[in-house]
Each structure stands twice: as C-alpha cells, then as structure tokens.
Amino acid sequence: MAEHGPLLRVTDLQVHFPQRGMGRSAQPIRAVDGVSFDIAAGETLGLVGESGCGKSTTGLAVLRLVEPTFGTVTLGDVELTALGLRRMRAMRRHLTMIFQDPYASLDPRMSVGAIIAEPLDVHGLHKGATARRHRVGELLELVGLDPDHANRHPHEFSGGQRQRIGIARALAGEPDLIVADEPIAALDVSIQAQIINLLEDLRDSLGLAYLFVAHDLAAVGHLSDRIAVMYLGRIVEIADRATLFTRAAHPYTRALLSAVPVPDPVAERSRQRIILQGAVPSPADPPSGCRFRTRCPAAFDRCAVDDPALTVRGDGHLAACHLVDERRG
C-alpha cells in the first residue's frame, strides 16, 4: 500500500444499470452517477442517505462486486478498476466487506470455523490444519466469541453473534479497509450498539479503515471521522463529524439531521422536524439542475437550470448547493 496520500481514492464513480424489458432507447438507471471521495489509513468515512440513493451500490462497486460503468477506484498505488479478475481477487485480501444480513451472508451448510477459514484458504494464509485452526480461534476471540464454538453452524447463533462471525471472516485476510454495508440494520436495537462498539475497537486496535454505509445518521455519527451524504446517486455534502452535525450546509443534510433524536427530552420536544415533500425521483430520469430541488423547501430558479458542483465551503467541508453560494455571495 502507498505510504503517502489516501488509502482509498474514488474518482467520478458511476454505476448504470439497463432497464430490463424497456427497449434499447430506455434511459439507464443511474444508481451511482459521479461519486468521488477518499479515505485515509485508519479513518472511517460514513456514507449515509435514504434507501435507493446508491450508497450500497457504491460500496459494492468499490470492491468490484458490481462493475463500475465509469470512473476509477484506487487502493494505495493500485488502480482496482484496471485489474483483471484474477488480480482483483488477490486484492480482496486488502479490502473486504461486512454484509447487511447476517442470516443470508453465512452458508448454513458450513461450520463457523470453515466459514472463517475460507479466506485463509483463498489467499494462502496460515497454511496447514493446525495453523488455520489456531487462526480461526484467534479471530473468534477477537470478535468476542468462544473459539470452542468453531464447529457449530450458523443456525446455532443469534443475529448479533452471526454478525460477529461475518466480521471475523472479513478480518481473516488482515485487510486494510472494510466496506461495512448497513452492518447493524438487520439487528435488534439492543445489539446494534454492541456491534458499533466492536467495529470501533477493531479499528483502533488493528488500524483498520472503514467505508461505513448506513441510513442511520446517529450510528454513522458515532463511528465516523467524516461523513458523506448521498442523494439520488450523488454526494451532496462531505464534512467531518462535528462540522456536519453543527454546521450542515445542504438542505437535505439538515433534513436528515432533524430526524436524529437528541437525549434531552425538552430539546427534543421543541425541535422542528423538517419533513421533505414528495418522493425521491427516479434515478433513470433525474430532475434537471439540482437533483434535490423537487423536494427542497428552499429551491429557487437557478436550481432548475444549473447542476451544483461539490465545492469547498471550509476546511475539508464540501457541499453541492446553490443556496449556500447565494448566502456567501
């Protein structure tokens, strides 16, 4: 991996899907439509937005589990989007994924030990039955599970325990970066905080970097160093956690923040919730100009004509909004 510069750099990433059964003239679904960001070693970048905004597709495209239509993804000095499939498989030792559903992501026919050992076999790590068994035990301990349970099968574990198994599998190749795709969404509320705390502890102890994909801004805020807000295939704002929560620039970000509960009951009751009107437009036919304008309470004439660029608003703070430009002018 590179010693200088970001660990991961994503530049103008696009993922378009054809509309099946609609004919060749049908516009493609622009699930991801020009996304750029970077992640430093040991950093967590949260990627947040409503369902269907393209955030999970972005995570899959970073690992090329979905092939990008355009753009580049670079890990260290290696441009992943230029690799053949064999070399890309080898690179997945360095970046891997934690999936959303701990029930669907684990093969019920395999023992937990075999599930965790599979990446070791694929990448030729800890060769030999004894070394592999020892490493599996270490990984189970690392995620708070009993190494003696390696011979059990996924159905013998709770949802939270299964997600810990998925995390252990993701750690098996000793990655530099993990894409965590909604890793707590399928879990009970009582378990979610435990998994967030585990991910935080692993990041700090192992020096991991995360792309943490979620719709829950409160969870994203707890774990992330910086947060990128996504709407209809585009990133509309990026800022460090404190700046985003206290000085959000984009109206969409402010609407998301208004839905995050605060621990003070008096403040919570007096807070004004921003309710967005209308539905998210189709990614096959996005609005002209600013994509958010059809739901934005502050939209004005320029928003229908000019597509706002993601531009610097302060130290590391970027937003794509004409309203901010007008206020600054």
Main attributes of the structure:
single chain, 11 helices, 329 residues, Rossmann fold, 32% helix, alpha/beta
Describe the structure.
The protein has 329 residues and is of the alpha/beta class. The protein has a domain at 8-41 and 49-94 and 208-328: P-loop containing nucleotide triphosphate hydrolases (Rossmann fold, 3-Layer(aba) Sandwich), CATH 3.40.50. It has helices spanning 55-62, 85-91, 112-122, 129-142, 159-171, 189-206, 217-223, 241-247, 251-258, 265-270, 322-328, and strands at residues 8-17, 29-39, 44-48, 70-75, 78-79, 95-98, 177-181, 209-214, 226-231, 234-240, 311-314, 317-319. The strands form 2 sheets. It has an 8-stranded mixed beta sheet with strand order 6-7-8-3-9-10-12-11, sandwiched between helices. The protein has a 4-stranded antiparallel beta sheet with strand order 2-1-4-5, covered by helices on one side. Helix 3 crosses helix 4 (129-142), helix 3 runs parallel beside helix 5 and helix 4 (129-142) packs across helix 5. It is globular. The N and C termini lie far apart (42 Å). 40% of the residues are buried.
